[in-house]
């Protein structure tokens, strides 16, 4: 995950993208993974709102029904959103 930090533990440092914490401090560090900024789900004005980072934006903008939810369960129900 972007901007993550896993301390100085061997192996877990490889799970973080290069940063000031690992890239120049350890000669054996090699990032191993697909690093991206994840979407976020937050309560805003009494509504659960899904925010997509730029790299996950669809080519056709989503309407508010796909980004705002009345409860957290509805926001996390991927199958219902996909199939329903």
Keywords:
84 residues, alpha+beta, 3-stranded antiparallel beta sheet, 3 strands
What's this model, at a glance?
Helix content is about 15%, strand content about 15%. The chain is built from two helices and three strands.
Neighbour order of strands in the largest sheet = 1-2-3
Number of helices: 2
Pairing-aware structural class of the strands and helices?
Answer: alpha+beta
The average pLDDT score comes to: 78
Strand content: 5-15%
Rg, nearest Å: 18 Å
Helical coverage, percent range: 10-25%
Low-confidence stretches: none
Let me know the largest β-sheet: 3 strands, antiparallel
Morphology call: elongated
Distance between the termini: 30 Å
H/E order of the elements? EEEHH
Number of strands: 3
SSE topology:
Elements: E1 40-44, E2 47-51, E3 68-69, H1 72-76, H2 78-83
Kindly describe this structure.
The protein is built from two helices and three strands, in the order E-E-E-H-H. With 84 residues, it is an alpha+beta fold. The radius of gyration is 18 Å and the shape is elongated. It starts with 39 loop residues before the first strand and ends with a helix.
């Amino acid at each position: 995950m972007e901007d993550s930090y896993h301390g100085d533990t061997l192996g877990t440092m490889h799970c973080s993208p290069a940063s000031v914490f690992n890239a120049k401090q350890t000669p054996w560090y090699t990032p191993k993974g697909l690093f991206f900024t994840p979407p976020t789900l937050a309560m805003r004005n009494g509504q659960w709102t899904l925010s997509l980072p730029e790299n996950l934006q669809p080519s056709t903008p989503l309407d508010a029904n796909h980004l705002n939810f009345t409860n957290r369960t509805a926001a996390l129900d991927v199958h219902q959103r996909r199939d329903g």
